[in-house]
């Protein structure tokens, strides 16, 4: 079983750590690093999954890869990446309430600045629900959101990369 997950653990952990580091770096350069960190996630997630599946195929499975093997090691990689990233961001925001307040204030300001546009698109009730949701946001919510936005695209990237790298016989 270890041969299936050796590269998944390695690249999932590396991707998760890079995501946390990018969050810290973006927080230092910008006030609200959450949106840019999601964009960074769309770069790091497919790279981590590709490297995981490619290394598994080349170094653990003699150049062969079934679709299910690719999906399995890809799943482990993006789950580890997402969990490390989300837990790291939650920990950072829990230890730095000033950063969390800055993120919360930025999100509330975006809502206030775009109130008329949002009201025209979704209506008063949806706007008020969104406003209450943002006001009730916690550091855990930010970490959970980041985790989900790593895992969901990870599933699709795993499918595509597993199909591309699949090789069942000579």
UniProtKB/TrEMBL annotation:
**In the UniProt record, does the keyword Transmembrane helix occur?**
yes
- Keywords, sorted A to Z: Membrane, Transmembrane, Transmembrane helix
What is the protein named?
DUF4199 domain-containing protein
For this protein's source organism, the top of the classification is: Bacteria, Pseudomonadati, Bacteroidota, Cytophagia, Cytophagales
Q: Where are the transmembrane segments?
A: 12-30, 36-53, 73-93, 147-165
Q: Does the keyword Ribosomal protein apply?
A: no
């Amino acid at each position: 079983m270890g041969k299936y997950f050796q590269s998944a653990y390695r690249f999932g952990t590396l991707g998760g750590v890079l995501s946390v580091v990018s969050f810290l770096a973006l927080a230092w350069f910008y006030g609200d690093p959450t949106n840019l960190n999601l964009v960074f996630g769309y770069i790091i997630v497919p790279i981590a999954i590709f490297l995981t599946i490619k290394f598994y195929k080349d170094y653990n499975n003699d150049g062969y890869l079934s679709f299910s093997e690719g999906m399995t090691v890809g799943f482990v990689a993006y789950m580890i990446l997402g969990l490390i990233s989300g837990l790291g961001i939650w920990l950072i925001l829990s230890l730095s309430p000033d950063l969390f307040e800055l993120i919360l204030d930025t999100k509330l300001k975006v809502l206030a600045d775009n109130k008329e546009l949002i009201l025209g698109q979704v209506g008063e009730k949806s706007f008020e629900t969104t406003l209450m949701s943002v006001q009730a946001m916690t550091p855990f919510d930010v970490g959970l959101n980041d985790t989900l936005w790593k895992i969901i695209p990870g599933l699709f990237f795993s499918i595509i990369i597993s199909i591309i790298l699949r090789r069942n016989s000579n």
